Amino acid sequence: MASVSGSTSHKARGTPARRLLLRFGGIAIAVGVVLSGGIYASERFAQFLVRDTRFFLPGPADYGLESPNLELHGIRYASRQQVLRLFERDYGRSLYLFPLTARRKELLGVRWVHDASVARIWPNRVIVQITERKPAAFIKLPAEAMLRWGLIDDEGVILEAPPKAAFQLPVLAGVQSGESQEKRGIRVRRMQRLMKELGPLADNVSEVDASDLDDLKITEQAGRGAVTLMLGDHNFSSRLKNFLAHYPDIHRNMPQATSFDLRLDDRITGLETSRDAR
Question: Looking at the whole model, is its pTM more than 0.70?
Answer without folding.
Answer: yes
